[in-house]
Structures are given as C-alpha cells and as structure tokens.
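Reading a protein record of the kind used here takes only a little practice. Think of the row as the fold of the chain written in a discrete alphabet. A record is reproduced here so that you can trace the correspondence yourselves:
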Amino acid sequence: MSSTAPAPRYYPKEIGNILYDPGKNLVGFHVIIDGNLVSHAQVHAKIVEKMSKYAGTIRFIKIYSYLHCNDIALVFFFDITGKKVDPHAILADLQSVPVFKSVQLIKPVKEGLIFDTYSFPPLYAGEKAIIFHKAMYEAFIKELRDKYGPAFNAILYHIGFQVGHRSYIAHVEKYGEDPETLFTIASENAKQLGHGIFQLIKYGPKEAIVRVYENFECQLFEKADKPQSHLVRGMIAGFLAAMWNLEMGDVNAVETACMATGSPYCQFHITRKTRKIL
C-alpha cells in the first residue's frame, strides 16, 4: 500500500452559515420541510420560484436532511439591497407553502452581517463538533508552547496520540477493519476538518510513512530550525498504533520533513519499537 502522487489542487470552503458583506441589506430564513412529500431538488426549485418575484439575490443556500428523520432543513440568505421588500411579507409567503412545516425569519446582527441563528449544535458525520478558528488554535498550540517550552510539546503529542487512537477505534466500529479503507476515511475526515491533506506513502506491519500537505500545526511556524509537529505527529502515531494493536510506548514517531523548515509538506515515519529480550 503506497502512494507518491502529488497533492491535487483543492479549493477552500466556508463551513459556517454566515455571510458578511458590508453595506448590503440581508435577510435570512430557516425552513423545515416535510421530506415525505418533497425531495431536495423540489425544495430548491420551490425556493427559487418563490424568491424570483422579489427581485433580490439568493446569496447563500444550504439544504440538508436530519439523521434518523425525514425532515429537510433549508437555510438561505437573501440580498434585498435597494429593493422595497418587507421581509415579513416574504416570511408570510413562505409560511403559506403547505410542505413547509416551519419557517423562521433570520435578521442580520448588523448591516451586511447575518448568521443562521436557528441551527445548533454543529454536527460532523452525525456527532457534535466544536470548531476552532485560527486565532484559537494558534493560542493553544503556539502561544502555550512559547510559554512552557519543550514540556508542552510532550503534552501536545500525548493529546494527539489519544485522539488518533480513539479515532481508529471509532472508525473500526463504523467502517470495518480494512487498513487501506480506514486510512482513506481518516484522511478524508482530516481534510474536511481542516487538519491537512494526508497521504499514506508506505504501510506495513512494522512501519508506515505518512505525508501531510497544509499541516495546520506547522503552518503556525516559519523558518524554524527543526520540525514543529507534535499534535499531528501524535494523531498519526495513535491511529497507527491502534491499527497495530499497540500502545504509546510501543511506537516511535519521527517527523522527517517539515513545512516549518521549508519543506513543501510534513512527513512522518512511524515504527514499532524493537524490544530487547534479556
């Protein structure tokens, strides 16, 4: 199992239901639809049809189904800048649609800034998720490391290892035990969560090499004289250790290339420790 292909081109995405466009007159709607009566495509067509009469512009739209429920949720933001439109008239119009079980008006918190105020908590793959933006994880990783020194690196590695180890166990429960499939799923999850773009370069029963492009941890450091990944290194080590049915003390995890030192990627060599028999 190996892969040496360069990372393809990717495109950033917004994960929050938020729109900020200063100077614009924005309004939003949160709608719950009976999924037994209509499909996602029909919902989209109905909204486009309804909103066309108001001559505004749909700036954001998201349609999704709830787990274990037939209801469909719809969130959209509508730009009515320069239009003489009463948002409450739009609300009443949407509420008149029989398949729309609930319609809530979303008001901007200030001119040009609107949030989806009715959706909580955020979920990822059906599980509650907490999102850290850069200012938060930079304070957690970089500022605390600067304050507490190398000792904090060990803490980051330990945290990362436990995250990786538990993630493997959760993946096995959902998806089975095939190593290649599990690593592919874990890599895609890491990409969706913004951790980086992970590639499995080499895998065997005793060692593995993992390459990470856009490693969020090492992007916090520039012109370093040595590799800087401890949290992500621990995550990879923990995942592979669990795959090999090993614990933290049974593996070595070395970062052999690092973005912080000028490499285009970070690379990690994970090996089983050799036990000497006395």
Observations:
- The chain has two domains: 18-121, 134-272.
- The chain has a mean pLDDT of 92.
- The domain at 18-121 is CATH 3.30.70.260 (Alpha-Beta Plaits).
